[in-house]
Request: fold
Amino acid sequence: MPHEKPRLIDEEGRRVDGREPRDLRPIHIEVDVLANADGSAYVEQGNTKVLAAVYGPREIHPRHLGLPDRAVLRCRYHMAPFSVEHRKSPAPSRREIELSKVIREALEPALFLEQYPRTAIDVFIEVLQADGGTRCASITAASLALADAGIPMRDLVAACAAGKVDGVIVLDLNDTEDKYGEADVPLAMMPGLGRITLLQMDGVLTPEELVACVKLAMEGCRKIYAVQKEALRERFIRIKREVEAEEE
Amino acid sequence: MKWMAKEPVISKMRKKYVRQLIAEGKRIDGRGKLDYREIKVEKGVIDTAEGSAMVCLGKTEVVAGVKVGLNVPYPDTPNEGILTVNAELVPLASPTFEPGPPDERAIELARVVDRGIRSSRAVDLEKLCIVPGKKAYILFVDIYVLNYDGNLVDASALAALGALLDTKLFGYQITGEGNVVLDRTIQKPLEVQDYPVAITVANVGGELIVDPCLDEELSMDAKITISVDKEGNVCAIQKSGAGSFTVDQVLEAIDIARKKAPELRSLVVG
Reply:
């Protein structure tokens, strides 16, 4: 049934979940969470929960898909049936197919695919709980999973959205803000290199507002980048402790 | 699982040549960096469609057709009619297009065109509702690619807009039992209140060009499609391709798109 559009910004300028316009949701990242995968990561951003796993570089099946001069990066973004209010069919939707493509193209600039000819690098992303910003959380998680798999990278890819809700430019939209807001601008970048690897927009923005959104989203990416690096560091500290414990 | 679409192949020599030319400010077909290929638009090319338009963008050829029907509104938007955009990369258009359900390229194409039309509210969906929650018009916009020579998005967005502008809506009658049926003897033009056009800017070795042809698309780093509404506001963006952009390039691309939009729009509107 249709819902009435809620008020997205209150008298004090706060958002539906109490955040200031330029605040990120609380973010929690863990690296190396799956035993079987070559690399994996888990990202919680507010109520959005995403799990990413990397297999490869490995032999490509079917074989004819292999390329003689580089690895093939394959990516599947998928939402669990229970990740949304009304059960989502597990069959890939048109949205998921498009997002799989743009996420792959957001990660690819970070990789040295030419180092692994005739192989595949498979990235699997499962959205476990969706509350807006799932493609961005997916990229954040997938780039960490790639790093965790030991695949050489130019930089990590961090992603974050900005947008306009009730006339205010805000960072990191949740589902309500995305649904009822005026515009949503997801952006992914390699913060160390200053390169944008994903940019999409939905809704209507004046050029000035769009530029403000792009700049704010980049600021969000840099904050997430710091959390990503910390999570990766913790994973290696954990390994170091395990090795030290074995030696004793 | 079907993973990815088969991409066309370009030789390393050809790719180097294309990139070198662009670095010198030239292009393989002699255009300037910010020039489109010749664009031809013809509306009303298909009599069986309620609206249609054919767009030739150089050698890229796209036809869009609109069919009108009745449907139950979606439960979350009971007061609105339905607009759906679908794209078919038919096998006769390129050796890399294969029969079968739409692949990721076709789905992305349809969704980017759809976003431009939807965000700009080119068609007021509330005016397509007949009985709230029960009956509404449904507009199927089908994009058919007939020949593939790059920049499908700009050509398809133009064809879709042209087809909508050409669309005649059937009348309807409400029968004694309260059923709604189409009355095909009545036809009135569909109201189109905005004219979104898509402009694709490719990054080739740091140089920005508009309307990449196929060889340029196969040689580029990445491209970005920016849809612009009649007010000059941006109503959809899609970065596509395996490369990246700097912020300054993105800002420049937005500028280019806004400058080129009126030129494209004038070809279908009026």
